[in-house]
Every structure is written in C-alpha cells, then in structure tokens.
Automatic annotation (TrEMBL):
Alphabetical keyword list: Methyltransferase, S-adenosyl-L-methionine, Transferase
Lineage, uppermost ranks: Bacteria, Pseudomonadati, Bacteroidota, Cytophagia, Cytophagales
Protein name: Methyltransferase
Active site per the UniProt annotation: H256 (proton acceptor)
Domain O-methyltransferase dimerisation residues, every copy: 16-96
Amino acid sequence: MNTTLEQIQISPARIMETATAFFASKTFLSAVKLGVFTTLSGNQSLSGKAIQKALNLHDRAVYDFLDALVALGFLNRDGLLETATYSNTPETEVFLDKNKPSYIGGFVEMANDRLYPFWADLDEALLTGKPQNEIKHTGRSMFEELYAKPERLKQFINAMSGISTGNFMALAQKFDFSRYSSLCDIGGAAGVLSVEVARQHPNIACTTTDLPSVESIARDYIAAQGMSEQVKTANIDFFKDEFPKADVITMGMILHDWDLPNKMMLIQKAYDALPEGGALIVVEALIDDDRRKNAFGLLMSLNMLIEFGVAFDFTGADFERWTKEVGFRSVDVIPLAGPSSAAIAYK
C-alpha cells in the first residue's frame, strides 16, 4: 500500500523536463542567432507574418516557434495565430537587442555556435577526461583556435563581456574600493571589469591586460564608454610575464580555465604584485562549499572539462585554502549577480 501511495504521489515530470530541456535551450539560442529580439526592439509589436518576412523564416513553424518563446517567457503576445502581435519582454528588450550597449547575447551566440555541439560529446569527456572542442578536429586548443581567427576571437570576447557585465557592475557596487588607488585586471578581454569599477570609483586608475590581439578590442570598448583617461590597456601574457604592481589584482573567469598547478601559479603572481593590504579578487561561478546548490557552477565545471579537460571550477573553501597556502591572510566571498560571486583574498 505504501509503495502504491508513493508511486501516486511522485511524478516523472521533472525527469522529462530535464531530459528535454535542450528543446527550450535550442529554441532560445536560435531566436538570438536569428535576431528575433533585435527585430522587435524599440518596444514594437509585430505580427507573426511580419517577423517571418523580416527573418526569412519558413512558414511551417513560425507560430510554433514564436509561441514557444511566449511560453518560455521571452516574448509577449496579444491575440492568437494570424491575429497575434509579438513584442519583447522587458528583459529581452534590454539584454538581447544587438544595438544596445546592454546586449549580453554574445555569450548566447557562442553557446549556440560552439558549446551546444560540443556538449553532445559530454559522455566521451566523462569517460576519457579529454576536451571535446576544436582540438578534436584541428589539433589546436580552444585558445589557439580562437586567437587564429579574428571573428571567432571577437565573438569570444563579446561572449565573456555578455556573461560578466552584470557581475562586474555588482562588484563595483558591493566591494569597498575606497581604500585603493590602482587596479590591474588580468586577462581583462574587452576591459569591462575595469570600466565598471572606474565608472563608479573615480579614485582608481585601472589597467586591463590581455594578449596583443585583444588590445584593439579593449581600446575600442573603453573609448566607446568614454573611459580612456581612467582605464588603460597593457599587453601581458600571464604565463610568461610578471603581473604589474597594483593595489588590487582582479581576474574575471580566469582561474577556472586551468588545472591546479596553473591556478596556484596565477595566485602566486598576484600575491607577488600586491602590496601589504592589497586584494586579489576573482569573479567566478563559485560552487557552494557543500556542492549541492549552485548547479550552474557545477555545470560550468563540466563545461571546463569539455573545453580543457583538466580545468575545473571551485568552491570558496578551495580558494581560501589555495590563497592562504601562498600567504594571503584572510578571505571574503561576496555574492554578485545570479550564481556568481567575488572571492577576495587580502595580503
């Protein structure tokens, strides 16, 4: 009797929702790639036929596609089928219009073009421990492949900006930068972290560092934000070069790209570049210490397996142990946007 009651009370719904979650993900990814939300920008409402014409869609699935986006919460709709008009939600209007500086679709585009097909080989990655990205087909690592193709590099930089901007804005608001006068961002990509900190803290001179092929992208972004006086760029290969001296060293989604020896090397370089009282800040999708709650952080660590094999995400407790081993005296963790946090080690 108890078994029968348990069978009645439990449901396979969550199992089926998870098993088919890629239906929703790919529908959304395709909507961004095809430009649905940009087409509807400016708070305009368009009919299904108008959207079909604008995007050159086949008529078979126009309403299934658009109504699925309504059901998923990414579009609003008035009317039904031929009488319907569609419009962006407040979120898609702000964050998924390619013509707005708040656009975060760069990461979504990269997820569609790179990550979605690579994740099909997760089972092989779990069995072999080997990356499943471009290296399988070209023999070159992810970064070698990206830096060899300017368009792919730009897409990657835009993706990193898209996924990180909210976190960097939150960091600038939540961390007390008033005690510091200089900041150096390691692997700063387009310079978004430096720009957001500088924008809110005019007392800080910021330097964003990356490889030479990224510098022009960063300079253009910094200039477009009107921050060229306060934010400078520098060419740094963080494996070969020492870090510039600064009161604050930051790394946004850098440490998780590497194995433990390279993580420790980067932490040591940061320690050596900081003065007494200085701070190392890393922004990551920190896994909760009990490894139960931050599903995104755990899935991101699987993504590091897909991308690099030996790389992995980590907990705040891991970060504290590593930094104290190098010599840092104390560690704080500040929640940022969504599943991400800032882990701060003080020298």
